[in-house]
Amino acid sequence: MKIGLLYEPAYWFLLEDLVQGLETEIMLAGGRSYRLTPATLDQTDVDLLYVLPYDKQETLKQIEAERLVINSVQSQEVAIDKMATSRLIIENNLPTPETVISETPDAVTGMLDRYGIALLKSTHLCGGMGHRILRREGGFLTTKVRDQTFRVAFGEQNRILNQTLVLAPPYYVQQFISRSAQTNDRVYRMYVVGDRVVMGTVRVKEGVDSAENSIINFATGARYEFLQTLDEQMVSFALRLADLIGFEIGVVDFLRDSSGHPLLIEADCDSCHLFICRKFQEAPRYNTPYNFNSYLVKRLAEIVDGAPHRR
């Protein structure tokens, strides 16, 4: 088994631990790994390319026409396009917070009229990055920027004008899901490898006292905990979404509603756009059952041996 790890060298400062971890698991599985860029690709004969952050998407499409690429380029594009992912969820009647995708602000104001609060989501970032809480306060829409409250207006480009934040379309807005008093301190993640969910984590953030602090990711102070038992509904929904997006190896994130039912919020995969956070490896109980890279490499070996896979 010869696996090429394709990535942009400029991202080495982000990828060093990840690449070294994958290389170790490939070696333990009896294979060989190769660090590749498009410039060195033709110099190395590999069975399969596994893609990590890499800027030249059109080049990657050309590569895929000649070589086996995991995850497929099409699935990478859908996973990074959060609106496309939400559309798949909604069109296939999977559970998700009430969601509006619109070129006009009417949908935004309508949701705020109903709930008084909403989440304006980033269209191409993961882990809650770029998300913003919107509120209706009196006759105005407001949001916070670095702990300062700004009025919200709508226009042709994003900008701050005096004490007003102007937002440009598209507007990708979801109902804010809280556990209590407009706060939420956890996000669940299912790890998909082929036709299995091999493990699960929950990201927990201490001291959440507002909706604005309910953006749950490692960078904002959340910690990973491992799920000892996987929720059967989350497993089923995660595999269904992986089928719809088409990724072979990836993660699917969930919230729970006030009744405890799971709600799909997004999915990510290692790709030319991003990579799955491995910070759970720093959690105290990290050990063999939670070695995601080991599951990943075993799946790559199965694909090299001819196993069917998502394309």
Topology:
Layout: E1 2-6, H1 12-28, E2 32-36, H2 38-41, E3 48-51, H3 57-64, E4 69-70, H4 73-80, H5 82-91, E5 99-102, H6 106-115, E6 117-120, E7 132-137, E8 140-145, E9 148-154, E10 159-161, E11 164-167, E12 171-175, E13 186-193, E14 196-204, E15 223-226, H7 232-245, E16 249-256, E17 262-268, H8 292-304
Parallel strand pairs: 1-2, 1-3, 3-4, 9-11
Antiparallel strand pairs: 5-12, 6-7, 6-12, 7-8, 8-9, 10-11, 13-14, 13-16, 14-15, 16-17
Helix pairs in contact: 1-8
Structure overview:
- This protein starts with a strand and ends in a 7-residue tail after the last helix.
- The chain is 27% helix and 29% strand.
- It is an alpha+beta fold.
- It has an eight-stranded mixed sheet, sandwiched between helices.
- Helix 1 (12-28) crosses helix 8.
- It has eight helices and 17 strands.
- The radius of gyration is 20 Å and the shape is globular.
- Among the domains are: 78-95 and 183-288, 2-Layer Sandwich (D-amino Acid Aminotransferase, Chain A, domain 1), CATH 3.30.470.20; 99-175, no CATH class.
